Amino acid sequence: MRTLDLKSEGTKLLLRAGLLTLLALGATFLLDPYRNYQLATSAGVFAAVAGLTLLVGLTGQLSLGHAVLMAAGGYGYALTATWVAGALAGAEGEVADGVVGWLLPLLAGVGGALVASGALGLLLGLAAARLRGPYLAGLTLALVIALPSAASTIPGLSGAQGISAPFVPVPDTLAALIAVEQWHAWLAIGVTACAVTPLVALRAGRAGLRMRAVHDDETAARLAGVDPGRVKTGAFVISSLAAGLGGVVLAIVTQQVSPGAYGLGFSLLLVVAAVVGGLGSLGGAAIGAVLVTLLPWVVDQATAGLPADLGHRLQGNLEIVLFGVVVIVVTVLWPGGLSRLLRTKKRSKKTQLSQNTQLFQNTER
Amino acid sequence: MTPEMGPAVERLVFLLSTGLARGAVLALFALSLVIVYRAARAVNFAQAAMAIVPVYVAFAVTSASGSYWLGLACALVTGALLGAVVERWLLRLVPQDNPLPGIIVAIGLVMVLQAGLAIAFGPDHRPVHAPFSQRPFDVGGVSVLSPYDLFVLIVAAVVMGGFAILFNRTSIGLQLRAAAFAPETSRLLGVRVPRMVTLGWMLSIATAALAALLLVPTGLGLDPHAADVLFVNAFAAAVIGGLDSPVGALVAGLVVGVLASLVTGYASAATAPLAVLALLTVVLLVRPHGLFAAREARTA
Predict the structure, then answer these.
(1) Which InterPro entries match (chain A) (predicted)?
(2) Residues 155-214 of A with CB under 8 A from B
(3) Range of A204's domain?
């Protein structure tokens, strides 16, 4: 029903995406440099969480390894962008400046990130198509644990130390207007918009329908002519591409990529963000991403006044305990997360009634 | 052992024997995953965090009383209690019809336990002393197992033998297996299925705690993440062995342990996780349900 009128739906979607992006760009003017840095970081996390929540919520495949896909994007970006920047400088004999000097490496870097994260996502997706819940989760967990080893084994990734990504300077025309943090926030918002908009379209369109069909009943989906393997692999690749773009954002903002930044803890935080926001909800993913980026900072601020020993122990741990409790509570009491809560509040009594009948039918089955 | 063996052979013997000792710990931990899988039809992703809590208890008791054995006993009891508490008070609240909520709750539990331990005991690695020497024996000029490795192997063998008797020769073991394979029929026949599930969790976490306790002196020391890699390797072993099969877990645990030891010795320590990942991927792609498991059901 929603998929019937694709053209006008598509235009509406693009308009809405454009509007939200402009709104976010405008908001950067209200924030100080540090807040803009946080905004850019949450944008990167948002891209990855959006990919993850789509994967888990629509196809039921749980990946604990999305941090590695982000890292793949980050490494792909840093290596390609550095190489292109070097080639440009070599060709002109001096450091290339002007728009070409930063735009070309940036675009090439994004391309490199998509290739790296897409390739890794395809490999995982092919495995995922054959695996169910715990097997896939375990495989992706093993991947996260192996990331530091991979970084020190694969030549060119410089082990635990990581590699640096080229600095993207503020263009001359804007230099008088905005600071570098705000400029990076703009880039982050732009890249994230490019990552999330296709996800929204997919979720609303035919592909989303297929994913839900495969999730609900694989045999029925197969009888209806949907190939579950292909749908699962495709969903994994798309999700990986979004995570890779998230990695690009973090590489632009921090100007470096290292395995330590994409460890198990960070990977689990991505899952937390997806669960808290509500699995399958992209709006919820945005809330979750902001939460996992900001709460550690809030806890740091709150524990700063405590005695040094206690503060040292709480730092970096208190928020993890809080996140763990929240994840358990949300899963047990409140499946659907924040997005479901916000929606049910708005819902009229009539739809509530029809939902109740639906629930009843489901339990009867 | 003849004196004319070259250094290459000596090295191989050393790596194989060390791998066997590490593999025994892995097999124990993999067995704990199998026990919980048989009881609850779920992989417990919080196994590493739940196993390391009793190790902290053992550490505290041992440093207070000076007795390793008292610490070990306390660890086993704490593990069993923790298993019961988590199963009764947390996992029973989680919907069971699909594995996703259970895994997510387990992840939340990992975060609470590990960060909670870091807050309670501080973030540093704590050195843990083994009850026996870790210097290898010298057999005909070749260094093989250390007394501690021997202790680990004996403990692992005793525990596994105990489980074999428990599962195959006792009434409780029969009830445990029946509750796992046909819960509704067992209930009709008078087996208290929920109690059996709780018992399975208690046995599983106590075993996992024992494995973690045996591992810690051979590593960098005690910290909240000390068992994470053990869990991943043991998960690989359990999956390779077929998740459902204790014998599979034992064999696969030893194989993964020896493989990791050989890769560490001949390539580098950093390569071992990659080798385990590669092995896990290959096995999952060839036999998605492991090497020793029966097929679950037709899908289409």
Answers:
(1) ABC_transp_permease, LivM-like
(2) none
(3) 6-263
